[in-house]
Structure to design on (328 residues):
């Protein structure tokens, strides 16, 4: 039997017309998901982290360093570990503060662990990475590991000097 | 073929069939014996002058139509292009998704750390000072960072 297929031409069993519109629809949905999903997630994390910092400030003012640390750590453990950009910076700052409170509570090993987790999110030439290196350097010092402390301080100085240079360039006429 | 034979051989039968078809349609698969074809055609021409009967013409037409292949359907260029455009858009969306996962988009938009924070960091990394000054300056910078992020993400 001979039939003319014409507009009913198929590709892998799917009519071409439907394949075309289907591909366009998938592309549009993917773009929407890429834009909306990323913004929503980051916005939520920013709000949650800011609230946690305010609560930690309140507890610290009341002399509850342990409670402050718990508030920050509870949020930190729910954050995605593979985030980039703003979410990573927010996460790194939370871990800096947790590490600093660990140190204040004489949980030196905990401070090393928290700071290391922060650095494992991905180092960047920003102030939050520098803070993590400094607080871990302090913890290494307290543990008597001068070499590890020196290495962290060195890395922190490299970033800070670069940021200072950039700051000076920005201020130059 | 010899006249003495009582039964034609298979080869003779096949040759006769080819000859009959050649007389009918002007050609035969595998070819027809030229001398026999010429003789038969002369005899037929002498009989009817080579006229094609209407019934025979119709039979030839039906035979030709039944054996003809349908012309290859031309692909609809419009739908092919639409499909390609859709696939290209889907590919572009994938690239955007991957790049969003790799580009530190937020870092570029973070406010630059103030000089006071950088100096506190230098002091903390250079000497055994307490982290109190670093904490204070970080808290100020944190406020600026969150203000910027609130502005950016509309929360």
């Amino acid at each position: 039997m001979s039939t003319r297929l014409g507009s009913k031409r198929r590709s892998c069993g799917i009519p071409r017309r439907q394949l075309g519109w289907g591909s366009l629809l998938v592309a549009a949905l993917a773009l929407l998901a890429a834009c909306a999903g990323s913004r929503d997630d980051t916005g939520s994390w920013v709000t949650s982290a800011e609230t946690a910092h305010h609560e930690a400030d309140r507890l610290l003012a009341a002399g509850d360093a342990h409670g402050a640390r718990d508030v920050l750590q509870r949020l930190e453990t729910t954050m995605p570990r593979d985030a980039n950009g703003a979410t990573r910076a927010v996460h790194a700052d939370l871990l800096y503060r947790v590490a600093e409170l660990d140190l204040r509570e004489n949980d030196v090993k905990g401070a090393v662990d928290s700071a290391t987790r922060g650095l494992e999110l991905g180092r960047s030439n920003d102030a939050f990475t520098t803070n993590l290196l400094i607080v871990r350097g302090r913890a290494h010092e307290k543990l008597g590991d001068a070499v590890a402390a020196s290495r962290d301080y060195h890395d922190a100085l490299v970033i800070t000097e670069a940021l200072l240079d950039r700051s000076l360039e920005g201020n130059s006429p | 073929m010899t006249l003495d034979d009582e039964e034609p051989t298979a080869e003779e039968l096949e040759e006769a069939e080819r000859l009959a078809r050649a007389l009918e349609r002007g050609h035969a698969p595998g070819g027809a014996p030229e001398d026999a074809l010429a003789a038969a055609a002369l005899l037929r021409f002498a009989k009817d002058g080579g006229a094609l009967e209407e019934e025979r013409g119709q039979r030839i037409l039906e035979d030709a139509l039944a054996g003809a292949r349908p012309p290859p359907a031309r692909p609809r260029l419009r739908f092919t292009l639409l499909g390609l455009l859709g696939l290209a858009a889907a590919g572009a969306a994938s690239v955007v998704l991957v790049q969003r996962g790799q580009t530190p988009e937020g870092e570029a938009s973070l406010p630059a750390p103030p000089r006071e924070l950088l100096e506190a960091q230098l002091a903390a990394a250079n000497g055994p000072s307490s982290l109190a000054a670093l904490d204070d300056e970080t808290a100020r910078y944190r406020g600026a960072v969150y203000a910027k992020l609130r502005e950016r993400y509309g929360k």
